């Protein structure tokens, strides 16, 4: 588990002390440059796994688990307020886009999974974020404006702008196609 917090250390602090035993990284005061180094670390891990899989004669993570007695853990990268990676200098945004794009394209086959979270995509370079979002097969949106809804769910899909918040949300496993929208209710969990 790799946790990157770009929300001024408010979301993942609880996992830093005491540290989560299965977390390799809990970065509570991340800056975009550091985020790029984490993405590069995971790209390096992907490349190492590719070498391992090739040597074992397998195509993906599932085949490797079935063919090998050596346990290889799945990796989950969670980035809260991920759009911050794209709000820095163009060189940082390009480096983040390049690495994140590769991980999104190839990561699942190697047991590397990514969860990106944000409250809004407004004000982000549409070119950078657009190429990333097109690679997200599963999207979840809560009530938001039309602009955010179409950026999250896909062009012309403003269904999230019509939700009641709370408790409604939309999950879409069809790369944002309107036909893939499934409305759901979020349960209230009181302390």
Q: What does it look like?
A:
- The model has no long low-confidence stretch (mean pLDDT about 90).
- The protein is built from six helices and seven strands; from the N terminus they run E-H-E-H-H-E-H-E-H-E-H-E-E.
- Strand 1 (about 1-5), helix 1 and strand 2 (about 25) form a beta-alpha-beta unit.
- The protein is globular.
- It is α/β, with parallel strands linked by helices and about 190 residues long.
- It has helices spanning about 15, 30-55, 60-65, 90-105, 125-135, 145-155, and strands at about 1-5, 25, 75-80, 110-115, 140, 170, 180-185.
- The strands form two sheets. The protein has a four-stranded parallel β-sheet. A three-stranded antiparallel β-sheet has the order 5-6-7, covered by helices on one side.
- Helix 4 (about 90-105) runs parallel beside helix 5 (about 125-135).
Please give a quick description of this structure:
The chain has 191 residues and is α/β, with parallel strands linked by helices. 36% of the residues lie in helices and 17% in strands.
Briefly note the structural class of the backbone. Answer: alpha/beta
Helix-strand pattern, N to C?
EHEHHEHEHEHEE
Q: Describe the largest sheet.
A: 4 strands, parallel
Number of strands: 7
% residues in beta strands: 15-25%
Count of DSSP-assigned helices: 6
Overall shape: it is: globular
**Rg calculated over all Cα atoms:** 18 Å
- Stretches where pLDDT is under 50 for at least 5 consecutive residues are none
Q: Indicate the percent of residues in helices.
A: 25-40%
End-to-end gap: 25 Å
Order of strands, main sheet, comes to 2-1-3-4
Mean pLDDT: 88
């Amino acid at each position: 588990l790799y946790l990157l917090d770009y929300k001024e250390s408010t979301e993942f602090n609880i996992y830093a002390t005491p540290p989560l035993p299965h977390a390799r990284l809990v970065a509570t005061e991340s800056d975009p440059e550091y985020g790029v180094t984490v993405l590069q670390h995971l790209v390096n891990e992907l490349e190492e796994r590719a070498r391992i899989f090739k040597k074992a004669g397998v195509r993906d993570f599932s085949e490797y688990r079935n063919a090998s007695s050596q346990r290889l853990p799945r990796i989950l990268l969670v980035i809260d307020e991920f759009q911050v990676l794209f709000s820095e200098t163009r060189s940082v945004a390009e480096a983040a886009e390049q690495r994140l794009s590769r991980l999104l394209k190839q990561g699942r086959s190697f047991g590397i999974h990514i969860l990106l979270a944000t409250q809004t995509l407004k004000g982000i370079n549409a070119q950078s974020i657009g190429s990333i979002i097109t690679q997200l097969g599963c999207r979840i949106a809560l009530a938001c404006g039309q602009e955010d809804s179409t950026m999250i769910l896909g062009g012309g899909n403003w269904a999230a702008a019509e939700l009641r918040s709370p408790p409604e949300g939309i999950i879409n496993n069809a790369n944002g196609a309107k036909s893939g929208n499934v409305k759901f209710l979020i349960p209230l969990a009181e302390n």
